[in-house]
Design brief:
The complex is a heterotrimer of chains A (272), B (286) and C (431). Helices cover 74% and strands 0% of the residues of chain A. Chain A is mostly helical. Chain A has one domain: MetI-like (MetI-like fold). The longest helix of chain A is centred in the first third of the chain and has 47 residues. Chain B is globular, with a radius of gyration of 23 Å. Chain B has one domain: MetI-like (MetI-like fold, Orthogonal Bundle). Chain B is an all-alpha fold. With 431 residues, chain C is of the alpha/beta class. Chain C folds into two domains: 151 residues, D-Maltodextrin-Binding Protein, domain 2 (3-Layer(aba) Sandwich), CATH 3.40.190.10; 228 residues, 3-Layer(aba) Sandwich (D-Maltodextrin-Binding Protein, domain 2), CATH 3.40.190. In chain C, helix 19 packs antiparallel against helix 20. The N terminus of chain C is likely disordered. The chains are: A mainly alpha (272), B mainly alpha (286), C alpha/beta (431). Chains in contact: A-B, A-C, B-C. At the B-C interface, helix 12 of B face helix 3, helix 19 and helix 20 of C.
Chain lengths: 272, 286, 431
Amino acid sequence: MSRRNWPLSIAAILVSAVVFLVPFAFILLMAGKDRAQAALLDFSWPAQFRFVPNFVDVVEARDYMLIIAYINSTILTVTAVAGMVVLAAMVAFVLQRRPGRLHGLINFLVLAGLIVPPAVVPTIWVLKGVGLFGTMPGLILVEIAFGLSFCVLLFRAFIATIPRELDEAAVIDGAGPLRLFFRVIFPLLRSVIITAVVVQSVTVFNDFVNPLYFLPGDPTVQLTLYNFAGQYTAEYNLLFMNILLITIPPLIMFLFFNRRIVSGMTSGAVKG
Amino acid sequence: MVRRSPYPQWFYLPAGVVYGVLFVVPTFASFYFSLTRWTIFESHFIGLDNFVAFFREPALVRGFTNTLIYGVVTSGAKVVLGLALAVLLTSRIVARGWLRSVVFFPVLVSTIGVGLTFTVLLNPERGLVNQVLGAAGVDGPGWLTNPSYALLSVAMVDVWKGVGLATLIYIAGIVSIPQEYLEAARVDGASAWSVFRSVILPLARPATVTVIILSLIGGLRSFDLIWAMTRGGPGFTSDVVASVIYKQYQAGFAGLSTAGNVVLFAVVTAIVLPLSRFLNRKEVEL
Amino acid sequence: MRPHIIVAALTVLALSGCSAGSLGSSEDDGDGVTLSFLVDNSETNSKIAEGLAKDFTAANPGITVKVEVRPQGTEGDNIVKTRLSTGDMTDVFQYNSGSLLQALAPDKNLVPVDDPGAFDENFSTSVTSNGKVYGVPFGGYNAGAILYNKAAFAKAGVSVPATWADFMANNAKLKAAGVAPVIQTYQETWTSQLFVLGDFHNVSAAEPGFADAYTRNQTKYATSPAAVKGFQRLRQVHDAGYQNKDFASAKLDDGIRMLAEGTGAQYPILSGSIAQLTANFADKAKDIGLFAIPGDDAAKNGLTVWAPAGVYLPASTEGAKLDAAKKFLAFIGSAAGCDSQSQAYPPTGPYAVKGCTLPADVPQAVKDMQTYIDKPGASSLALEFLSPVKGPALEQICVEVGSGIRTPEAGAKLYDEDVKKQAQQLGLDGW
């Protein structure tokens, strides 16, 4: 019965190629040029293919700063996302299952977390107060705090679809709250967790402002873009090679989880 | 029956501590600091002077207008385009999975990287966009350098980058519409357009609410992309409230910029909270 | 029960505390001292810093200097301020002199230098707070002047202008000869300010004592006839159509290229940009000269100069590191330090250390600059080194005036408003 709509398909493929792929092709071409040609900023084939030397230059720049930045960003992303997923799931679980006195307050706080722009300077002040300013754990906790709301909303909607009978069965089997949560509920959240992990990893990995303020001195990948766009000089070929390199991790993540993201969303955000 | 609830409130505790210390406390502290003249080194209490100074800021009126324009344009475009793309990408077309991936991918790329790339592509003399327009005989404008276009050009790039997420939310919404409704409509001989109007549109409503709220919040607070592409320029013509605040912070006026943050917070809340109530109430009535 | 997940998460959280930062090279080198040195990330300055670090370590084997970079501009200012206020600053750091240094509260956050007599007075003035000198010079003087292409001048039959009227007459001829007379590059907003900031020698020649009166809020850009001219002239150049066609979207890179290739004749810019010229167009550097921004009176015309950046010692540096840091500063402020800098990067202006000379092969524009500096009364420091009052929004205002978005008078007035916030923040009298 299914009749595929060929003309529309071809039009869609062509339009998407122009609108969405040309900019990436441009990044790729720029990354392969020499410095003088890149400074012309035009969409052209590299006169000399300098892909490998540019790559080496970018990696070696500033005492292998990109490598350090990669390690820092990986630690930051993995820990912050793991932290916010576990903590948010716990909140969402109780919030959905147990309407109580705290219910209204917590709903309000969750919404506030989405709406209120974080106050950068006072946050620095607080971090200094607890001795975590300029440290990786400090930045991780900040990212967790800023990401919690989104995750709670996503999880709460999903937990609503898990029948309460499951909880009751587990409780009758003698499970305590921790066991109920980690053995029964958490595994069931798998598909929505994948969505949250992908979205939040990308957010944290691409975060530019927070590391700039809360972790001065230690580079994360977004800050390496500064290496090649200075006040007096701009090395566009290296800048675009750098953009290319820091786009690869999200790309890999995406290729792995592409199909799962939609299925997680189906049960999550829409009903939130 | 007295027994401990399987849903203990201490589950709130770890998240509550992190969130309270690093989000709630700074937010309240900002109310105090907004009343001080504060360099990073010391602060003096000066009452409401910062708010007076902030509202006198020349770029501010423009900043507010721009913020509203930016928020409405980006979230409006994301709703329309996201829905259109979602309908397209749930219909029977070839290479559907590939198209979904392509549309979603910009969401994953760093905002700064996107900003830098498009600044180059939109260069009025040598950028690809105007070269192509030129080849077609059209004299393209200075997208980012003409005061009348700068803000909208950035908004376009914002839509380019963000439409994938809106599409995804809509796809999720459309996929979850029970097939019986669609079948029933088709059996009744409804045209594609009326299926869209009377089945898909109302049933994708929760998705619409999510897209509007998320993209409006994002649009009103938006900063990264504007900063990467125009820095509020040319001059002050594409300044939004968030970029005015950031410039004040950069200039070392920490108290003043914190006051600005409090104002922005009030504005976003005043717009989003009633809107979200309104949209959600309508949903219940349906 | 399966609390493993939490435990694992917490463990990672704890472990990660140790591993941020310095994975590139190891912290400890036996019993030697390692100094961290923060500089901005411009190609010039980071190369100079690396050069100094290398030569200093060679001369002092027990001490290693590790260079860290930060962004430039206001983002960099913030990082420096934040790190100073948290006591988390590197052992030594490079930063602007003049009004930006004053905003760091030097009395509270920095350690004065041991031997201030070794430096040129223009520099010492720029790093002095309450009678104490806080920095040693890093790099050379910079001029806010006009770089010009000699070949383009010859082709249009014009010579270096002595007054603003000559300058505008030249522009008409240059335009007729088919080159863009004045290069402007507003995509990098800081480059828009030269007609205003670089005119300061002319302003103070016309109104002696302007800087002091300005600091005390007794004169303003909008009300001083000499000072407002900078804004008016910026607009004149725009209205006469003397700018390059792509002034709104061009960047410094483009400006330098236009100048070197001769498609643009004159570029009002900081002379530090010569570095870019010699890096990208080495063979053209000899064709590029420099002259001061012309004023009304040819006899009083002169060059506005920016003092070199300084290297400073934060109050947080202690013990063995403090001794090592003092040694490092003494090295930077010595003739050997100047040579090390000249080797690391071709110098773009005279040094502020007494007894330092420039190599003979410096570009033509640097030689032109030296002529002004050597002639008594033909150069003065820019306003930002004589007064702590400098507004943060001047560059945006200049872009608006120079693009025809705002009138020069409204621009000057807006800048006066902008400056007021800064003065109040500093708690100056009279504001």
